[in-house]
User: What shape does this take?
Amino acid sequence: MSDTKIKRTKVEIQKEALAKLESEAADKRKQIAILEARQKKAVEIKQRALDERLKIHSGGMVHMVGLHRYVYSDVEVRDNPQDALIANLLVGCLLKLSLDLESASIDDLKRLWNAGREFRKQQQSDRQLAGVNPHLSELDELAKSLPKP
Assistant: This one.
């Protein structure tokens, strides 16, 4: 019986071992690709959550100082059909603020920082908000006169 068996050479044995290792390596590469994709997705989800948290916080600050009261009274003139905020006005104000902050001195920055800290320390019911500009109806008229995009 042993006479009929074909003996494998050392080369054949090594080739079979190599083929097995290459198959295992291919499986490992697939597993690594899957794990890297999961890791990338987890990082993206975490970054999106941090970004969302920052936006919620920013919205809270806008609400805190009363800027949410600047809304269009008419659905037809809204900057954004999804909400009534006068986005063009608020973006213009925030742009001006951004430019002012860019060139502010350290004394100005400290003064603003302290004013904000003192405002935030107050109880919500004790905070004195600036009034809403009475000329908003004229802004509505301007917006109505502009052509729709």
